[in-house]
């Protein structure tokens, strides 16, 4: 006899993870918790990609902190990967080749460089050492700024000029080079702002300047005497330059102490990380938020924020990812040793470590050979309302077939003692050389649905999926929970 | 089947997690309730019990087993003779000061033990010899099973036939589901419990062999006596 049951579908999870809500108030399209997983392009929840050393390169001698990760294209046919590590600069040429030359690079975990391709010349600055340049041949060398300043924290390439701000002489000063000449700096080619400049972001028709007092724009006028029209747009701005990201349509995302905000040109900034409040953000070490940084990852429709998570944590050790397609959040993804900087290389984020390694952040199914422990927890919406008791029967999980391993599935709610079951993630396809006739499962490699038991009587029920094995990743599409409506029953003091 | 097995199945059928101790306690309550229910459904052969006691010279009062529901017979094994179970008023009228001693010939129920609740019987005459074995048969009650009984084998340790083990977990599951409000499933499980009890009762009736029972001769002991009322036959 068929089971007399109703069903509720969880997923696809296009609302992402919502740490600010009670589990019972997270709907079918949201997740209440997530660890090392992301929301994919169709709302599936999947294990984040693994990490590995760029080109399998060995750690640099002395395991210095990487403070620059950049892809540099001096011309249409040439691409270099450049890093700063400890007291040296390198580019990759079947191994890391030093290009430091006579430059002085001061080692330091927070001496992180900003860089830009200035029409064929890579320029970088970190506010500690003098800005430098590299054309792709020979060694890097000091950038001439005509003695206008010695160091600058922030830089941008905009309107065919090189811009540098927050100098050793004046934290609120913004300098710009002559047009087409990054080493010619006029004596009066600067703007003074009323507060410390925290970021420069080139946009379609304006250079956006973040200061402690707000966001301003510099819009080209075409007039040689007054080349830019300056206007303050908001009274709020980002924390630092490395944490400010520009998106298509000139939307910017940036960090503040209480969360992550977006700005699209108006007078207001809009908080977009309410979902991370309460359940996640309070553990961010906001005193070290200046060390945070971020990057836009177009292929995944994501913006990654590298954040210092935990009391006393100064190194960014978590990533939370903002999905620009669904406007939702994934994460956190944990990298216990932390990441020091990030750049987009070959279309993928590559983050520096504190261990002399540049990590490809989107490769494989392990973290440089170590297991990625992952989990996610669904919401626990009440299909019939929180006043109607249900008897939970079983869950059918749809997932992408993987290897011959399991996900642990734990049911939970405040009103019941849930089950813990093992869900085989093995593909339905018969693998030659691995499966035996009579033992392997014949079938196509489509989305697979398998059942696990549920237990108990309660209006709500969430499911947590987890695995900690090496190379044991998972992709989950949706879950159907079968239940039998019981009706309104008064709760006893104990579990029911 | 161990009591643990019965608890597991009852909890699973009720859709709960069998490893949880609170659910196990809850299930044990309903197993006991089902057991008490079953115990009253028939005169079960496996509920008969025999125990013995040893006389003490000039001791009149003896405490029986705590699981005695009702007594069936006493016999003096040492002297090879039966004891009659009588009413206390018969003894009172026979020997008001109850001073007579000798080999016990009658036994009557005098009350219950204050601490254990077990029945107390008195023998008459008061036994004058120590060490004589008195055996008694009775129909037992079933005690409440506790967590200390979880590893008991219900057949080997308590004499409950295997067929009724299934009735126990069906009944317990039904009880739990009624508590949680799943009346439909509770009825299904209760129906299954009844089916197993019916089967067990059939087996119970065949326990003493495949004999045909018929009325005894009119002059034999314990006979039933039918008398036709005058004018009742047409």
Strand order, main sheet of chain B: write it out: 1-9-3-4-6-7-2
> What value does the average pLDDT of chain B take?
92
Which percent band covers the strand fraction of chain B?
15-25%
Poorly predicted runs of chain A: none
Count up the helices of chain B.
Answer: 5
Helix/strand/pairing category of chain B: alpha+beta
Number of DSSP E strands of chain A: 40
Strand content of chain A: 35-45%
Give an account of the 3D structure:
The complex is a heterodimer of chains A (496) and B (234). With 496 residues, chain A is an all-beta fold. Chain A has 2 domains: 6-47 and 375-487, Jelly Rolls (Sandwich); 52-366, YVTN repeat-like/Quinoprotein amine dehydrogenase (Methylamine Dehydrogenase, Chain H), CATH 2.130.10. Chain A has strands spanning 6-10, 16-17, 30-35, 37-39, 45-47, 52-53, 66-75, 78-85, 88-92, 96-98, 114-117, 122-125, 132-134, 141-142, 152-158, 161-167, 173-176, 190-192, 197-202, 207-211, 214-220, 228-232, 245-246, 252-256, 259-263, 270-271, 293-297, 302-307, 318-323, 328-334, 341-345, 348-352, 358-360, 374-378, 389-399, 406-412, 420-424, 448-453, 462-467, 475-487. In chain A, strands 1, 4, 5, 35, 38 and 40 form a 6-stranded antiparallel beta sheet that branches. Chain A is elongated, with a radius of gyration of 26 Å. Chain A starts with 5 loop residues before the first strand and ends in a 9-residue tail after the last strand. The relative contact order of chain A is 0.16. The mean pLDDT of chain A is 93. Chain B is of the alpha+beta class and 234 residues long. Chain B folds into 2 domains: 3-45 and 142-205, no CATH class; 47-140, no CATH class. Chain B contains 5 helices and 9 strands; from the N terminus they run H-H-E-E-E-E-H-E-E-E-E-E-H-H. Chain B has helices spanning 3-13, 21-39, 88-94, 162-180, 183-205, and strands spanning 48-54, 61-63, 68-76, 81-85, 101-102, 106-112, 119-124, 126-127, 133-140. In chain B, strands 1-9-3-4-6-7-2 form a 7-stranded mixed beta sheet, with no helix packed on it. Chain B has a two-stranded parallel sheet with strand order 5-8. Chain B starts with a helix and ends in a 29-residue tail after the last helix. Classes of the chains: A mainly beta (496), B alpha+beta (234). At the A-B interface, strand 35 and strand 40 of A face loops of B.
């Amino acid at each position: 006899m068929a089971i007399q049951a109703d069903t509720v579908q969880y997923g696809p999870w296009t609302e992402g993870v919502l740490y600010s809500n009670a589990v019972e108030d997270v709907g079918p399209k949201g997740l209440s918790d997530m660890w090392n997983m992301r929301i994919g392009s169709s709302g599936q929840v999947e294990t984040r990609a693994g990490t590995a050393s760029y080109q399998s390169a060995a750690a640099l001698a002395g395991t210095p902190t990487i403070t620059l990760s950049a892809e540099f294209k001096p011309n249409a046919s040439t691409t270099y990967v450049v890093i700063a590590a400890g007291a040296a600069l390198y580019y990759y040429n079947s191994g890391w080749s030093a290009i430091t030359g006579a430059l002085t690079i001061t080692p330091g975990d927070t001496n992180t460089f900003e860089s830009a391709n200035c029409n064929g010349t890579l320029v970088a600055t970190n506010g500690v050492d003098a800005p430098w340049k590299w054309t792709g041949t020979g060694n890097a060398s000091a950038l001439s700024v005509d003695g206008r300043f010695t160091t600058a924290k922030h830089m941008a390439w905009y309107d065919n000029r090189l811009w540098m701000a927050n100098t050793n002489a004046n934290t609120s000063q913004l300098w710009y080079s002559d047009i087409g000449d990054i080493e010619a700096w006029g004596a009066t080619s600067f703007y003074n702002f009323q507060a410390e400049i925290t970021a420069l972001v080139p946009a379609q028709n304006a250079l956006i300047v973040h200061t402690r007092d707000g966001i301003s724009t510099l819009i080209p006028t075409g007039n040689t005497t007054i080349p830019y029209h300056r206007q303050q747009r908001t009274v709020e701005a980002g924390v630092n330059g490395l944490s400010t990201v520009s998106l298509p349509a000139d939307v910017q995302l940036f960090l503040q102490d209480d969360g992550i905000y977006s700005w699209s040109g108006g007078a207001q900034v809009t908080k977009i990380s309410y979902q991370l409040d309460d359940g996640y953000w309070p553990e961010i070490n906001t005193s070290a938020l200046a060390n945070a940084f971020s990057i836009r990852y177009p292929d995944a429709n994501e913006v990654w924020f590298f954040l210092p998570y935990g009391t006393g944590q100064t190194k960014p050790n978590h990533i939370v990812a903002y999905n620009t397609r669904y406007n939702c959040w994934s994460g956190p993804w944990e990298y216990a040793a932390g990441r020091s900087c990030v750049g987009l290389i070959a279309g993928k984020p590559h983050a520096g470590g504190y261990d002399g390694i540049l990590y490809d952040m989107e490769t494989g199914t392990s973290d440089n050979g170590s297991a990625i422990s992952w989990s996610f927890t669904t919401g626990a919406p009440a299909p019939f309302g929180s006043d109607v008791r249900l008897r939970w029967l079983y869950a059918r999980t749809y997932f992408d077939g993987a290897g011959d391993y399991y996900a642990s599935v734990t049911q939970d709610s405040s009103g019941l003692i849930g089950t813990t079951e093992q869900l085989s993630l093995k593909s339905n396809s018969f693998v030659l050389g691995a499966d035996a006739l009579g033992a392997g499962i014949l079938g196509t490699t489509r989305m697979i649905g398998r059942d696990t038991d549920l237990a108990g009587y309660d209006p709500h029920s969430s499911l947590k999926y987890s695995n900690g094995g090496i190379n044991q990743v998972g992709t989950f599409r949706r879950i159907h929970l079968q239940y039998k409506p019981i009706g309104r029953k008064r709760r006893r003091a104990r579990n029911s | 089947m161990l009591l643990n097995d019965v608890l597991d199945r009852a909890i699973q059928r009720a859709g709960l997690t069998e490893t949880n101790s609170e659910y196990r306690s809850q299930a044990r309550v309903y197993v006991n309730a089902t057991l008490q229910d079953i115990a009253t459904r028939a005169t079960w052969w496996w509920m008969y019990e025999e125990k013995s006691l040893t006389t003490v010279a000039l001791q009149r009062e003896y405490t029986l087993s705590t699981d005695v529901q009702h007594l069936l017979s006493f016999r003096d094994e040492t002297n090879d003779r039966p004891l009659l179970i009588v009413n206390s008023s018969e003894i009172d009228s026979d020997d008001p000061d109850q001073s007579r001693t000798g080999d016990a010939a009658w036994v009557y129920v005098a009350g219950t033990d204050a601490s254990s609740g077990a029945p107390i019987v008195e023998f008459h005459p008061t036994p004058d010899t120590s060490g004589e074995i008195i055996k008694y048969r009775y129909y037992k009650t079933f005690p409440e099973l506790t967590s200390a009984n979880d590893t008991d084998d219900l057949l080997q340790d308590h004499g409950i036939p295997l067929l009724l083990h299934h009735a126990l977990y069906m009944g317990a599951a039904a009880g739990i589901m009624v508590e949680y409000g799943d009346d439909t499933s509770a009825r299904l499980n209760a129906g299954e419990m009844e089916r197993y009890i019916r089967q067990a009762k059939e087996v119970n009736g065949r326990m003493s062999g495949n004999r045909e029972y018929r009325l005894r001769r009119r002059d034999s002991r314990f006979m039933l006596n039918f008398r036709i009322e005058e004018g009742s036959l047409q």
